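Re: the request from the purification team.
They wanted to know what the chain is likely to look like in 3D before they choose a buffer screen. I agreed to run a prediction and write the result into the notebook, where they can find it.
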Amino acid sequence: MMSIEPRARPSDTFAVSAPDVASSNTGADAEEWSQLWFTLERHGWGSLALIPAAPGASARALAERLAHAARAYQTTAVEVFDAEHAAPEDVQAVVAAVGGRAAVGERVLLVVASPLIRASAIPLARAADAAALVVPLGEVGAADARRTVGAVGHPHFVGSVTVRGR
């Protein structure tokens, strides 16, 4: 089994608000998405797990928007790997696939389910180089956010991103 060991994280994590996920990537929204991408990118990861803090929420639309913003600058290949429905028996294959892409210089946005409803999200998030907590406004309480971070482990997180609803 291939695993990616977590690196020490700087203590200055960030919390940023993403533009409306349903909006287009044009004009001011495109600039906000690009700024969010560059804020996340500065942490030097090859794979970033996007972890929803609310059970039943998804980080897929956020990952797609971030990938679109990153590709506009053509700095490196950026791929979205959807592992929201990964079963326990899928974990090793997902870790190997994501690790292989990151090893050749691609950036991988790994979309996982909330670890509060799907335990396989925990080893997937831990295998990524870094993680970001995705917090849907009005849908998650502080207790769920704390439980999510606790399940994965605080050292894995580089910060959080708030999004508007599902």
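For the purification team: Confidence is low (pLDDT under 50) at residues 1-16.
Please add any questions underneath this entry.
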